[in-house]
């Protein structure tokens, strides 16, 4: 199969391939709502283990409570990682086997967002005040640490259901992904101070920052489903490639997205010197802030489009998603599950938020 | 046995018990230098796994590099936790069995200090600029996350040497200690905003913040030495009590200690509203900032001493250390190893920094 375009119809690159899937805006398919509900229930159980106010801070970050601690139902995150994890697990066993590890993965993701918001000084996420703005930096930083501890707890508990000879494989995958994610985050922050970052450096950073955890989502889903070791490794690679596509789309949305849909203030990252893919590719094409665009987002969009940056970002995302698909097809996964993953990969490319 | 006084001779409570051990100032016995060297070597190996600049930040925090990344030998921390861990392990098996897990524990401790310094806004530790001041908050926060990831990695690797049926016990002890530590830290920060904290609340906070990891140090040392499950649990309790004694002494040093020896600016914590034990006990005795002491540390010391706070802190520390000793004596540990631990417990009470 081929993947749909990452840009809606009307962008320069659309229509150049014969897409099997439509290109209209879409959310994660509702078919996975039950999976997501199971993972959220497990996350809620884990957060409820807290015996101090740190639990309420986690609940706020996760959208389950407002700033006063009262129950709330803020729009949840996409929960892409647990959804991928369960979808892969279903390709080898029963999705229920991966609920615990999927909760662990989403808790790692939640932890990373809490710390990321502090590191980037961001005030808004999903249209809500970030935790450090709400609770103050010290308690928020510490609540992020707690979320990661809960992720570890979830993994320890989940691993009990694995055959004993595969438990260390789970811890190894999980810990390696975590360390790579933190190293990618290091590069992301470090790059803010640099004038120029090559596309190769960008890819290295994103393989860690975004790819590692998405890779682990697929790999752990396979492991908990009982997949052979080679498929676990292949799916990890698929996830890393998918993570690169995911981040490229994320970066494009930061420039061309609709803040009302993304819930983020567009242009913030650029102002801070974040080396997003559009910027990296524009600089590679000779663009400098003096060429215009530094004064307004509209001007920047125009300058980048003129340089063909938008199509280049699209090609990058599509190329990485194609590699992810190749890996997917190299596994022994059940065909029905593979189709589901193709749909999820397509979502990553076409999402609008 | 009874433990020596936590205050040097001349403090009001000294001489009231017949101490077996001398009360003079002491550091951790040099006998354990080889143990500490083995743990540091393991920590260095783990930090060297970093493929980005995050490794240099960790090395700076650990005293192995200066701010430019050049090798340095800053005065190391006490490494009390790994020393306790190996000493307990020796009570059941060979100390070498616990080197990996001791490195994991010290890396958790290092992680907690990096985040603690950010949360408290501290500029100095062991007489050196803290990591967030040196590297900036975003990279330092992230480096703290990396140190915890390395701790996880160390534990995963170390656990391979355990009999398979005891591996989950190790992960359980480690993760529970981590979560309790973070909850204690939450209370510590939260208490800054309160006028009054009871001694019971203080003890609850410290059981988490300080006790949990020291408890895990003893428990994991026992587990890796092959101790029976009941001894592991008893030694965990001993470590938690020892942690309470440790923190009480720490709090006393923050008021009565010599900054040239402690490497910390005395009085900082009080100014920030930290609920240290001297303050908690003084408030319980009716002291308020209006009674004097808010203007200078000298005046505060005088006010606290008049209220008998110094002796009360000493009694608290001694009482907790005595409970730790009771637990120690309830185990089947080899007698030689028990004597060594008695010496280490005594160090906790009499240390000057």
Description:
Two copies of one chain form a homodimer. Chain A is mainly alpha-helical and 353 residues long. Helices cover 64% and strands 1% of the residues of chain A. Chain A contains 15 helices and two strands. The first copy, chain A, has helices at 33-47, 54-61, 80-89, 99-120, 131-135, 137-159, 167-191, 199-225, 229-256, 259-262, 268-272, 277-284, 297-306, 309-329, 335-350, and strands spanning 124-125, 128-129. A two-stranded antiparallel ribbon of chain A has the order 1-2. In chain A, helix 1 packs across helix 4 (99-120), helix 2 crosses helix 6 (137-159) and helix 4 packs antiparallel against helix 8. Chain A is globular. The interface between A and B is large, with 42 and 42 residues.
Question: Secondary-structure map with pairings?
Answer:
Two copies of one chain form a homodimer.
Chain A (H helix, E strand, L loop, with lengths): L32 H15 L6 H8 L18 H10 L9 H22 L3 E2 L2 E2 L1 H5 L1 H23 L7 H25 L7 H27 L3 H28 L2 H4 L5 H5 L4 H8 L12 H10 L2 H21 L5 H16 L3
Antiparallel strand pairs in A: 1-2
The share of residues in extended strands of chain A comes to under 5%
User: Based on CA inertia axes, which overall geometry of chain A fits?
Assistant: globular
Radius of gyration of chain A: 20 Å
Q: How would you write the strand order of the largest sheet of chain A?
A: 1-2
Q: Quick check: average pLDDT of chain A? A: 89
Instruction: Give the total of beta strands of chain A.
Output: 2
Largest interface, counted with CB-CB under 8 A?
A-B, 42 and 42 residues
């Amino acid at each position: 199969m081929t993947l749909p375009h990452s840009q809606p119809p009307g962008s320069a690159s659309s229509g150049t391939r014969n897409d099997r899937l439509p290109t209209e805006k879409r959310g994660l398919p509702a078919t996975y709502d039950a999976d997501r509900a199971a993972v959220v229930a497990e996350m809620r159980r884990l957060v409820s283990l807290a015996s101090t106010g740190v639990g309420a801070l986690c609940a706020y970050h996760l959208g389950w409570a407002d700033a006063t601690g009262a129950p709330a139902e803020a729009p949840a995150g996409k929960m892409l990682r647990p959804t991928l994890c369960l979808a892969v697990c279903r390709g080898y066993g029963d999705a229920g086997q991966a609920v615990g590890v999927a909760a662990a993965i989403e808790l790692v993701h939640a932890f990373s967002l809490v710390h990321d918001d502090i590191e980037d000084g961001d005030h808004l996420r999903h249209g809500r005040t970030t935790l450090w703005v709400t609770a103050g930096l010290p308690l928020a930083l510490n609540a992020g640490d707690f979320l990661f501890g809960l992720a570890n707890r979830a993994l320890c508990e989940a691993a009990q259901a694995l055959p004993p000879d595969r438990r260390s494989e789970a811890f190894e995958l999980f810990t390696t992904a975590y360390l790579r994610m933190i190293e990618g985050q290091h590069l992301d922050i470090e790059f803010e101070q640099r004038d120029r970052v090559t596309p190769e450096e960008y890819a290295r950073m994103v393989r860690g920052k975004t790819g590692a955890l998405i890779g682990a989502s697929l790999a752990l889903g396979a492991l908990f489903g009982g997949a052979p070791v080679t498929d676990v490794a292949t799916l990890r690679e698929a996830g890393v490639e998918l993570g690169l596509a995911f981040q490229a789309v994320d970066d494009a949305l930061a420039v061309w997205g609709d803040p009302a849909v993304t819930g983020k203030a567009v242009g913030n990252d650029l102002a801070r010197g974040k080396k997003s893919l559009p910027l990296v590719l524009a600089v590679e094409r000779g663009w400098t802030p003096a060429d215009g665009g530094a004064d307004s987002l509209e001007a920047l969009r125009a300058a980048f489009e003129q340089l063909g940056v938008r199509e280049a970002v699209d090609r990058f995302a599509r190329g990485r998603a194609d590699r992810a698909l190749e890996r997917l097809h190299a596994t022994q996964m059940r065909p029905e599950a593979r189709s589901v993953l193709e749909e999820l990969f397509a979502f990553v490319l076409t999402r609008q938020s």
